[in-house]
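hey so u asked for the seq, here:
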Amino acid sequence: MFRGGELDLIMRDGSQLVFVEVRQRSCSRFGGPLASVHWRKQRRIVHASRCWLLKTGWKTLPACRFDVVGLDAHRQISWIKAAFSLGDS
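ran it, structure tokens below
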């Protein structure tokens, strides 16, 4: 956890570093788990990822990707790769 937010998962996919936001919702009344990653949440995730990259001392920044994994009330998993980018937030 960082001052600007927290990171759920940090993974690698080949040479890419992947920051994964995991969301769960018990009902879809307000759009479900994936819809809950609005622009403010995206901005917090990007900020936290930048803080993590600086703190861990990467000499050269790797290519990064932001994915969102959602788990709905029926335990169905949805995974959106490259759900948003630095420019979106």
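The helical segments are 32-35, 39-55. The domain at 9-84 is CATH 3.40.1350.10 (Trna Endonuclease; Chain: A, domain 1).
lmk if thats what u needed
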